[in-house]
Amino acid sequence: MKIIFQGQNFIVIDKPAGLVIHSGVGIYPVKSPTQGRGAQGAQFNRAGEKTLVDFLVEKFPEIKNVGDDRVNRPGIVHRLDKETSGVMVVARHQKSFKYLKNLFKNHKVEKKYLALVHGKLKNKEGKIEGEMGRSKRDFRRQSLVRGKINVRKERYSLTYYKVLEEDKDYSLLEVFPKTGRTHQIRVHLHSIGHPVVGDKKYSFKKYKRQEYPRMFLHANEIEFSDREGKKMRFVSPSPKEMKEQLSGVDGGGK
Could you read off the pLDDT of 130-178 as tens digits, one per residue? Predict the structure, then answer.
């Protein structure tokens, strides 16, 4: 895990793909003196791997007292899926946490992702929108809601995209989510027939049978104003695997 920025109010990290952020389904707090992180204990997934929170608390112990769930996700202002890599912001104290959380809530944070998707898009740029909620077929999945809307369960979602490069099998997109729903980008791209390469949850059977080194979704940039009003912009470079997959260098999935 790489530290992109370290300030008095927050930290910006470059999260690797495959790292779980915090405890949840399939994550077990372990209160062992040899494995733990103080009284809270360490958080391990089914494979016995530490979470991002553990690495953060080891390096920045002050964040143990920050957040709205200080046991499971201290300092965590926003999240990335386990399989997603890229830039993340972590608060170092409670005032910063509340400030940053409010920015995200009020859509005052600009985010850009890179996504490698299956196929060629007919429209080289556009938007995807609609109400999102839990899938009626599988509660573990999210979906765009068709038909009658339940205002208590579904929430509006909006994503813009632009094609950067393409070949006969894949397209590389810039993706700009304007809302922050669970699995939003993955659900939206799947809904237009172009799922993220390597996504086992939101894809089609013909793609799920193929093997890829990772899910190719990357949080590339984040921009917001700090508490003093200064514009802050942080970038996590495009993973080399994306270019390799697009150019067929490694031959993965083909």
Answer: 999 887 777 778 888 765 555 555 789 999 999 999 999 999 999 999 9
Q: Return the active site residues.
A: 81
- Distance between alpha carbon 14 and the CA centroid of its chain, in Å? 11
The domains located in the chain, with CATH, are: 1-106 (3.30.2350.10), 110-254 (3.30.2350.10)
For residue 206, give both structure tokens. Answer: 């013909």
Residue pair 49/20 in contact (Cβ under 8 Å)? The answer is yes
Closest Cα partner for 190 from 135, 110, 246, 109? 135
How far apart CA 51 and CA 45 sit, in angstroms, is 7
Distance separating alpha carbons of residues 243 and 237, to the nearest angstrom: 12
Structure tokens at 202: 């939101």
What is the rounded distance in angstroms from the CA atom of residue 130 to the CA atom of residue 232? 30
